[in-house]
Amino acid sequence: MIIGFRAKGGSISETAEFVNCSRAAVVKVYRAWQNGTVQNQRRGKCGAPRAIDDRGERRLRRCVRADRRATVEQLTTKMNQGATKSVSQSTIQRTLLRLGLRSRRLVRAPMLTAVHRRRRLEFARQYSSWTSTEWRQVAFSDESRFMLHRTDGRWRIRRETSERNHPATIAGTVQAGGGSIMVWGMFSWHSLGSLIIVEGTMDQYKYASVLADHVHPYMRIVLPQDDGIFQQDNARCHTAASVRAWFEEHQDEFTVLPWPANSPDLNPIEHLWDHLDRVVRAMDPQPRNLAQLATALESAWLNIPENTFRDLCDSLPARLAAVRSAKGYAVSQEYNFLLLGMVIAIFTELQKLKKKRREQEKIFDDVHHNDYK
Fold first, then answer.
1. 311, 337 in Cβ contact below 8 A?
2. Cross-referenced Pfam families, in alphabetical order (predicted)?
């Protein structure tokens, strides 16, 4: 402060008064700085050194990566093995939080074999040139099951320690979740399709009825130019011989998109199922029987905002890019749609620029060829 105040033109007396020291101290420090024998240095760190230094933090990271499910107690035991100075569990806990290694729920994703990953990667590369325009011609479909009563860990409550067994803090359980309903649905960028309540389990015969009564009319009305594409997964009822024969009979009207196995993270309809589940769980009062649950699901489906399912269709280029980056492994289904929209917009603009550049190069080649003649 002395050097800085004097360098700005302050006199010795003004500097001494500002810093609250003697005039002799100001003269001594400023003269030493002019002679190059003093430097501006940071003050030494205060307090005791950390119990776990940088090297210890790196070791703790390695322990966590070696066993992601290890508890704080287990990590403390590993860190204290062969150490000259032991650390406590609270120290390990604070260090983990400082390193950003927080305890979180496991992300649910399909089990992928090497063959699954290879085919997913091949699929992502095969359709890497598709923009949102091409994906808007695809109708996505899938089945899902909804339980009448379900606690999936999303609910949080606040209670005192003594209120553990209070009725308001208990999530009651019933056998088999009180029953469930299977639904089938389809949608594209243009429109939502039907939501069908499936009695029992979907088999090839029920699926054939769905194709004839719902898929065929939808493809003819919504995608009438014979360039529509229908997406389905590789469930057994979807690949039965009778079902394949039905698609062959209608191959002049629309085609079926080859879909990699175990890839629900690529199907945007999974987000619609999650949307339905959240809407139904937020209802007050809750559905009390399967008939009310079916009505609630149908109502929630009909009220899905248009921008919701359109944004999902437009997210396919970003999803495939994520699969390519992950080398075929599963990608997160929790999208930040604001960021995703930016990524999609950038990706679309890049595709347009590439297409425009190819057209310009073609025109240039044609002109150059004519001049040469």
1. yes
2. DDE_3, HTH_Tnp_Tc3_2
